[in-house]
Structure formats: structure tokens, C-alpha cells
Amino acid sequence: MEQKQIASLEYKIEKEYGNIAGIIVLKDDNVVYKKYFNQCSENDPIHIFSVTKSIVSMLFGIALDKGCIKNLDEKVIGFFPNYQIKKREKTIQHITIRNLLTMTAPYKYRFNPYPKYFSSEDWVMSSLDFLGGRGKIGNFKYAPIIGIDILSGVLINTTGKSVLEFAQDNLFYPLGIFVDKNIYFQNKQEQLDFYKSKGANGWVADLKGTNTAGWGLSLTTMDMAKLGQLYLNEGYWNGRQIISGKWIAESTQVQSVWKARHLKYGYLWWVIDEAEHSYAALGDGGNAIYVNPKDRIVVAVSSLFVPGVKDRIDFIKREIEPLFK
Predict the structure, then answer these.
(1) Which pLDDT score, from 0 to 100, does residue 103 have?
(2) Tell me, what's the pLDDT at 98?
(3) Long-range residue pairs from 174-180, CB within 8 A, at least 24 positions apart, any chain
(4) Cβ atoms of 146 and 127 closer than 8 Å
(5) Beta strands in the chain, from DSSP E residues, in sequence order
(6) Which of 77, 278, 291, 306 is the residue whose CA sits 20 to 30 A from 51?
(7) What is the pTM of this model?
(8) How many helices (H) does the chain have, and how many strands (E)?
């Protein structure tokens, strides 16, 4: 980029996207732009909110490759033999891993019952209690937090490791990503402080040590860029196959549609443009990993949490991507 274009981009970021912590753009496997804002640095992990979901999708791809999970059509309830199904509750018995990955599982709540969920010591069991009901399996119902933790339980029960340990061994360490510990909250204020923090290295867990699947992971901007590059390179990293190309292709193509918002979804990834096969991991506050295989571009944007931020995909496609095509 010319210096004038850089200055124009950074001026717009400061004026219109003031909560951005860092941006990294990779083109043809090379860093072509890197900049940090708000006194953040390359060493500061940022809470990436729902981008966590896409990392969990990666872990399911690895677990499937390793044979820990037979297929996505296995019934979820089968992984929790000690769970007592409520009387007259039949729907839950038919919900599959695929339904959870594609957000096509029904839940008993109309509005997210966060107080009841967060006050529970076991977020997996709490999520199972909310699963099912009278909704129809196959209809898109986005679960921002409650429900998605069931996938953490499936990973634990099939791999014999915590979600963080499985991620460390099979995804993070091979890429040079260092997530050190579980993060626990003693009260609501600690949780709210974490939302706005920078530099907190770890992955949120409930009191039983089960890591969250829908939010709660902290990564640096470069960590995010690496994960995007791994997908762009069809699962290869330094000559080693970390995730199968088959899983990447399948998880980033349209598997379900949020008709009310005209949004397309894969396996915990948002499908942005089917023609160029671009896709993204998106998190609250404006966190994003955007991948465009057609133009060999990866854009990672980390952001400090504020509500109601401007659309990051629109920002990436309008302000960043054209500069590097």
C-alpha cells in the first residue's frame, strides 16, 4: 500500500472503528499489513467472543480425523449416558452433533436464561436441560452462549482430555499459539471485567473445568491470523496436516441459513460469499477472522468490547480487502 492509503485507512479506523485492538492482513502467506491500536500490542491476548465457536469447529474436525467421533450424525444424548431425560421430552433424543454445529437444534427458551445458566456449576448439564422442547429440529436458531457448551462435553467425553488440553496438543502448540490456563469467575463483575480486558491469557471454564464453546477464549491478533492461514492452506502448517482439507471445505460451505437475517452458516463458521468461497469467524465487539481463498487473503481483526459496533465484514471488504487484491 502507498503511505497515503495507509494513513487514510488508519484515520478511518480511529474515527469510526475506535475499539479495534489490532489488524493483521496476510496475502499469499506473507504479512502485508500489521497495526495495533488502543495501546494494545502483538503480545496482548483479546477476548474473541464467538470467534471461539469457529475454533471449536476446528477441534471437531481434528477429533473426527482422529476417529474420536465417528460421524456428525451421532445423537448428542448418547455422549452423556448419565443425563436423565425429562419425562415427555422426546426431541432431545434425536438431536445430533451436526445440529449443534449448524445451529439447527431447538431449545426450550425463547429468551436466553443467562442468570440460571451462569449460576450453574456445570454449564454442559445446564445446556442439556435447555435443549429440545417443542421447536423443530432443522430450523436455524442461533445459540450465542447457552447450548453450544454441549459440544465441549462431547469433546471431553470422546478425547479423554479437557477442551483446552486437546486444543493445545493438536492445534495451538503446532501453530505456536500459547493459551496457558483456564479462566474462572468468582462473580458477575469479574466476568464483565474480562469482557473488556486485554492481556488475559486463557480460556473461560465453568467450576468443573469445562471450557466454554461459544465464547471465552483469548487470542492475540497474530494467533487469529495464523488460524485463518491454516484454513486458507487447507489444513497444512509447516508441511504438517493439522486439519483435513475435507473438513475445512465442508465446514465453510453453506450447511444452514438464518432466513430472518439472510445469513449463511457452515459448521460454526459464517459463509460470506459462495462465489469466491470466502468465510469468517465472527465475535461480539467486532472480532473477526476473514478468509478469502480466491484472492489468498486473510484478515484478522481483534477488538476491545463495546456494544453495537459497525459491521466488520463490511469494513474488511470495503476498506481493507481492495487494497491488497
Answers:
(1) 98
(2) 98
(3) 174/237, 174/238, 174/240, 174/242, 175/223, 175/226, 175/227, 175/230, 175/237, 175/242, 176/226, 177/219, 177/223, 177/226, 177/227, 179/45, 179/203, 179/217, 179/218, 179/219
(4) yes
(5) 20-27, 30-36, 46-47, 182-183, 203-204, 218-219, 236-237, 240-241, 256-258, 263-265, 270-273, 278-283, 287-292, 297-303
(6) 77
(7) 0.96
(8) 11, 14
